[in-house]
Structures are given as structure tokens and as C-alpha cells.
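Quick one: examine this chain and its C-alpha cells and tell me how the chain folds. Here goes:
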Amino acid sequence: MAPRKNFRNQAKKEVKPAAVVNKNGVKVEASVAASGGGFSGTKIFTWFMVLALLGVWSSVAVVWFDLVDYDNVIAERAKEFRFNFSEVLQGKLSAYDADGDGDFDVEDAKVLLDEKEIKVPAPKMERLKKGLKERPVSVLLREAKEDYAVKEPDAAPTPDDDAAVPLPPISDDFIPDDSRDEATHPYEDENNAIDTKGELVEKAQPQQTVEESKQYNNQPGSYNNQPGSPETKETVQLRYNAEAESVPEPEADVEPEVESVPEPEADVEPEVESVPELEAEFVPELKAKKKKPKLLNKFEKTIKTEIDAAEKLRKKGKVEEAVRAFETLVLQYPQSPRCRYGKALAEDGLAEKMLSNDMLQKAIGTYKEASELPNATPDLIKATLKKRAERQQFLGRMRGALATLEKLVQIFPEDMALKNDLGVAHLLIGDNNSAKRVYEEVLATAPSDGFAKVHYGFILKSENKIAESIPFLRDGLESGDPGTDDGRFYFHLGDALQRMGDDSAYKWYERGHQRGHFASVWQRSLYNVDGLKAQPWWTPKDTGYMDLVKTLERNWRIIRDEAQSVMDKTTGLFVPEEENLREKGEWGQFTLWQQGKKAGESCRSVPKTCGLLERYPEATGCKRGQIKFSVMQPGTHVWPHTGPTNCRLRMHLGLVIPKTGCKIRCTNDTRAWEEGKVLIFDDSFEHEVWQDADSYRLIFIVDVWHPELTQYQRQTLSPI
């Protein structure tokens, strides 16, 4: 011990003289430090500051130039956990949501760092920054990881364990509480068509407005009937969309651009109601959280990894592989409703890809199988049967869809949205009485249901109960409920008000125009092709159909004589107008061509007239129009109305015209017919007719394609 102690003492003694004794007069230790042999306190502090500043500027650069994709980083970290870690983390970070979008992201970080300006109330900003200092993101990240640690792979979930389990992304378009949130059918905006028999058509449809994809028929009071049109019939035209190109719904404050059209008088301009702005602080709180459907039963949670793997293939568009994967799961777990539902979804996607009705029919069968398996969750049963009903309607199997919806209502009698869908199904097959009973039941339980109100009002108006229909249509539209923002309801409300002599009709037409349903207040057709020239009155030169007009005017006496010969017969060839467009009087029609198809028996009665028209395909091939004689007796008044489409123009050839008392108004321009002369107007604009003469008025009506439609469009547009 003594030698070691002496050694330490000796070393200490040697150090002191070395620091002060040098023949050059310089301290040895100081010289060594200066040459890099050690660090003084000043140098250590300098290097510390350099490193600190480098770190600070690196952090600033990462945030300022968005060098790090934080969303992907969080997603990758979340993959390490069996539970949906990103949702858990967002739940903890939502307290620092600065821009009001409901979550915490890079934009929120920039706001908190004062690197991005956003209107956030000062008190809230102070709370956010204070909270961020007290509990930084790293702390929340660590706490979330600790709170939701990974369980052992073979540990089965407990029966009550339904928190934070990530639901498979199979129901993007399914919301259990309301089936009407989607504005359009998932496949309605597709470029390939399917006819009334469900046969897929390979030719693509021309681009049309949203309303173009709806079904249409000629039954009086039908839900599919174009409002206010005396001759309207369209086959069921449903379309696939391989690229999911949907037509966006115009915003309420955006007015579509249209050709110059006479505007209504100032006294009918509506007052556009404004919605007060909400402060950013309260916007996230007002966002309704949609309940996520629970599609997995207790057993299926234990095989969730396998289900997710198959589902991932489907979501990536690998539908063939997804079908095989789900088929394997169904063989392995035949009593799993979720596996069979996944198989149905995959088959549905494959049907879309293959344009195969057979595959779609197979998916419809698989949906049914999934709904009937034991231990299926209520949400899965609802989702499965709703998908089945949608696809049945898609294929034109309306009665099958009705049966599926009736089963849904039996299982979920308290779900008013399902009852509303059932009412629509009744309307689609023309059963207005059953639909009326359904909506009466809904309104008895939920008297403020806007969807039920507009449909109930629609039915009342179809029964000619004009005054009774108005409050239901008006209240339903004012509710703003999903499914009420439909051009047909604006149309019918305005039409009902007009018939009651109420000028507020034009306020509702204006609102419909602002909502994007009508091209203008005057032009209110619903089955339109965008971009066509829009004007109420046309000249023969405007149309480009000069040869047809000259033929009609040169041969008007021949046409008149054949029409009168038919009128003299007692065979009842002139059919009364049955679309409830007359306020009073008698109005008969004798049709030669309908939807581009020749009425052979009728043409045999007027062979010369039909012979004259055979060489004009713009008329005889117009699938959205008619060629017919029209006779109107004295004392007749036709309500203001519009035709169904902007794809046609209407020619009126005067045959027997009384000297006074007969006139037609289109928009705010009123004209009269002349014998042997052709009037041309666009009947998609509001028009009205008076016959106050002392004898009948006879004209020849010839509809022609709008001249700006291409040949391809004329071939592929659906008939009306």
C-alpha cells in the first residue's frame, strides 16, 4: 500500500512543476492544449453551440421543406401493432388540431410553429401551444405505444374486446344509418351501359348530366316519370364506370354557365338564404361522427389477419386474386359470414372488370348466402342485403330488389332509412299506393323526415292533390336531408305552386338552378347533355334542317288532308293527352314515330305523310322525340311545363289554325301559328298553350335531334 501511495504522491508532485517550468518560459500543459492535446472550457462550449445550431436548422428545414412524410412515418409505425395504432395516436393528438380538419397533421404543426397563417381564435391557439409544451408529441407517442402494447399472436381476443380493432376497408360506400348519402349509384356514372334486360353494352355513353343516368318511364304519376312532359318514356339505362369517373355535384353557390337566355321578371327573383359562418373553433365539434359498422363476429376476430390479406387484394384492384383468396377462406371457414361477404364483394368487383352479368348474378347469390349464415353481425346483415338490393336494381330486377328490401325492413323495423328505400322500390315498379303507405308509416314515427316528406308530396301531386302536396314538398326540401336535393322535387313544387297561382314557384326554380338541377330558371329539363346551345326559339337556318322545313311547308296541304281523314274516322286513333297537363279542355294526339320507332299501323293511315319523312333521319331517328298530329279543341289551356330533355328541338307545322285565339308562349315570348308555316322552339324551356278560338286547332309536330349532337351521341343516347 505504501509504494502505491508514494507513487500517487510523486505523480502529483511531478505535474505541478511541469506546468510552470520550461526553459522557454511557457506552461507545458497550456501548449499541449493549444496544439490539440486537450479541450479548454471555451472550446467545448463552442463545439456544443455549433452542433446545437446544426440540429435546430435541420429541424427547421425538415418542417419548412416537408422533407419528411409524417403520414407515412406514422403509418409505418402503426404496422408494428396489431391494433390500429394510427387511430389511437390521432385520438391523443386531436387535442392539438389547429386547422379544424379533425386530426393532427403537418399543417397543424406548422400553425403551432407560427410557420403558417390560419385563422384560429387567439384563446384556442394559446391553449394548443401550452398543451404542446406540456405534453409534446414524443410523450403522446410513447404513451400510446405503452397503452396499446402488442398482444401475443396466439392470444384470442376477449368477448368484450371490440376497441381499436381496425375494420377492414370493405364498406367505403356503406353507412348503416342512411342509405342515401351517396349522390349516385356506385356504377351509375360508368361509360358502359346495361339495358332493361340487364345486358351489358360495350359502347360507351356520351357524357351527360347526373340526371341522365336515372330511369324513366311513361306511367302517369310514376316515380321515374319526367315531370311535366306529355310524351316521355325512357328505358332503364344503367351504366358501369370502369374508371369511376363521377360527375361532381355543383356547389350551392356556383351558377352554371349557360347561353344567354331571357331571365324571369325581377319580381320573381328568389331571395337566396345565407348560412352564417361558424368560427373555426367550433367546426370540428359540429362534424357528425358516423358509426362504423361492426362486421366481424367473435370468431372472425381471431382470423382477421387472413381476412385483411384477402381484402387488401380486392382494394388494390386484384379482383381475380381476391376472389381466389376469399374462396379459400370460405372453404376453410364455411360458417364465416365475413369471409363470404368478402367473396361477394370480390365477385362484384370482378363483374365490373369483366362487364359480366353472370358474375354479377353470382355475387348477388353470394350476398344472400352471407346474410343467412349464423352468427352474422347485424351490421353485416344490413350491409350485405343492401348491396344485394342495389345490384338487383342495377340489373333491372326491381321486384327482386323489393323483396330484399322488405326482408331488411322486417329485420330492422326501427330503421327509417330502410323504410324510405322500400318506398322508393315500390315507386320504381309503379306501385304508388304501397309507397304511399310506407311513407305514411315513416312520417307517423318520424314526422320531420325530409326524405319521406318529399316523396309523399310527390305521390300526392301525382294524384292531382296539388294543394296538399305543396307543404310536404316544401318542408322536405327545406329540411336539407340526404336524398331531398333532387331536381324532380324542385320541379314538382314549382309546378304545383304555378297551378295554384303562386309566383313563389320561380323562387324554387331559381333555387333548383343554383343547386345545379336546371340549366336556368326557364330551362328545367332533367335529361340533358351539357354544352348544347340553349335558346327558346329557333329559325330554320339556326337548325341546319332547311331541307326538312321546306319539305313540310311545301306539302302542308297533303299532310293536312291525311290528318283530317284520320280525324273523320270513328276509330279513336287520336288519343287524349294523359299527362295531366291541361287545366281544362280537350287535347288529342295521333303518333307516327315514337322514340325513333315507326308506328306501322298509324303510317298506313297516312302513307303520304310518312313517305315524306322517311328521308329525314334527324326526325325519324330522333330517339328522344316524336312525330305526331296534335288537335286541340276550343276552351283548352295547357299549364306551363317543360319537356324532358335538351337533346331535341320541336317543329310545329300549322295545318288548321283559327284566325284568332290560338297562341303559344315559350319563356316570355308569345307567338301564334300560321297555316303552312313551321315554328321551331326548344321545349326544354317553359312553354304554355291557349286555345280560345271557336273551332279546333290542328298542327303537325316533328321532333328533331339538337343540331349540335354528334352522330355518335345520337346513336348511343337512351330513348325518351
